């Protein structure tokens, strides 16, 4: 049922001695959402995922999965892609899935073949794992996560090591899973990819959620974009805009100006009255990268 709460964390906190890795983290993820989880290195993403999977206990707060407290039964409905270290290097991709797929129930060879096909490994199904590239190893991790047809996926950097074609394929797979009513939790540092697939997201800084909501809401709340200006006199235009307090840079054959709503008209008047005719002017909408940088202070 659309709108069903799949994951809910309440005041989730984890300390390690005097260090607080995650503090009072409260998020809610509903069925069918692709929920992006973003933050600089060391912001608490992996610690949060570990608590969501029951790998470490929270110092405070709790995690609910599918409307119940975290337990083995609810975790059976979760597929995870975190790393590739557990596979047997001397066995083929298919044999690895046969082994891991039979840990808690008989392995289904048809499902194994379907999973390998879905992640683009069917042609290399019988190749040894140690001959795989990093991207191929990531694909095998995803194939393993798909085996039991879980309702909720946790993907931690699923495109690590992949080439652009592989990244595009995994992006399509995530969109397909969501269209089937699956729910995806995606931790990634590739902001352009997150912006293309995620419906909702949370931004973490030093263990604290500082932004969260739907992607549309977050981009509109930022209320900031970039104005591309082609003036008749670059040096004079740059001087006028900087004197007026606008953050401006030269990019190729344009001036790029950071603007908020209503600034475009002000800048147009400012340049013309300053004796700088404008040849072209285009306004671009804010990107997720802009929101992330402003929220986290990353430059």
TrEMBL record:
GO molecular function: ATP binding; ATP hydrolysis activity
Pfam families given in the database record: ABC_tran
UniProt entry keywords in alphabetical sequence: ATP-binding, Nucleotide-binding, Transport
Top-rank taxon, per record: Bacteria
Family matches, as InterPro entries: AAA+_ATPase, ABC_transporter-like_ATP-bd, P-loop_NTPase
PANTHER family xref list: ABC TRANSPORTER, ATP-BINDING PROTEIN
Family: Belongs to the ABC transporter superfamily.
Entry protein name: ABC transporter ATP-binding protein
Organism: Dehalogenimonas etheniformans
């Amino acid at each position: 049922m659309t709108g069903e709460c799949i994951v809910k964390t309440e005041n989730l906190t984890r300390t390690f001695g005097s260090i607080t890795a995650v503090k009072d983290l409260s998020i809610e993820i509903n069925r069918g959402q692709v929920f992006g989880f973003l933050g600089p290195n060391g912001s608490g993403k992996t610690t949060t995922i570990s608590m969501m999977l029951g790998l470490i206990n929270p110092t405070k707060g709790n995690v609910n999965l599918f409307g119940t407290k975290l337990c083995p039964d609810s975790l059976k409905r979760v597929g995870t892609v975190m790393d590739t270290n557990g596979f047997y290097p001397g066995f083929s991709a298919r044999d690895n899935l046969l082994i891991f797929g039979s840990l808690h129930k008989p392995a289904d060879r048809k499902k194994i073949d379907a999973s390998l096909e879905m992640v683009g490994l069917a042609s290399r199904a019988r190749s040894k794992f140690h001959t795989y590239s990093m991207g191929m190893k990531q694909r095998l991790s995803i194939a393993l996560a798909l085996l039991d047809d879980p309702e909720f996926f946790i993907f931690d950097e699923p495109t690590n090591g992949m080439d652009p074609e592989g990244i595009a394929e995994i992006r399509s797979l995530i969109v397909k899973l969501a269209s089937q009513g699956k729910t995806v939790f995606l931790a990634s540092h590739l902001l352009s990819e997150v912006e293309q697939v995620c419906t909702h997201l949370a931004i973490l800084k030093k263990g604290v959620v500082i932004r969260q909501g739907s992607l549309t809401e977050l981009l509109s709340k930022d209320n900031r974009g970039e104005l591309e200006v082609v003036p008749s006199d670059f040096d004079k235009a740059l001087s006028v805009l900087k004197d007026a307090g606008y953050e401006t840079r030269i990019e190729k054959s344009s001036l790029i100006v950071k603007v908020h709503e209503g600034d475009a008209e002000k800048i147009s008047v400012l340049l013309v009255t300053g004796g700088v005719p404008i040849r072209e002017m285009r306004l671009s909408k804010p990107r997720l990268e802009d929101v992330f940088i402003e929220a986290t202070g990353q430059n």
